[in-house]
Amino acid sequence: MPTRVCPECGEEYIATAQTCVHCDVALVASEGFAPAERASELPPVSQLVCVRTASLDYAEGLSERLSGAGITHRLEIEPVPKDPSARRNDAMPYGIYVRESDARRARELDAMHMQSQFPDLPDVPEGESAGDRCPACGAAAAPDATECLDCGLALLEPA
Predict the structure, then answer these.
(1) Which of 18, 50, 107, 136 has minimal CB crowding within 10 Å?
(2) CATH says 37-117 is which class?
(3) Distance CA 131, CA 138 (A)
(4) What are the sequence ranges of the domains in the chain?
């Protein structure tokens, strides 16, 4: 039976649990979970780089890919803004954070993971910009948009 595990303390939970009662962090799938180092050894999120904000399923998949590459990371539930106009789509409350030194490789792995999840995404040659369009659905997106208004994809800030 699949289970979830806390990336900080290692406590194991049933598959439907979402957060650790001890550490108050998002749980990850236990299958193949073997972090290179404990998430508590990472600096606070404020000192890390957010690679992607996404749904739990996508975040867990990217987390597994990062773990497989030996990139220490933290999967955190994003705080809900008090201002209703600043609230994001409820399906994307998880952020995946890495050290700045790992950000470039983590973004490459994120692009690979995105392509595996959305195989119909258009390829954008390296060094070329996709413009102000959502990479998932191609809808127009403002340069400062954090989320696609058509499909809900969380958009990364330019590196």
Answers:
(1) 18
(2) alpha beta
(3) 10
(4) 37-117
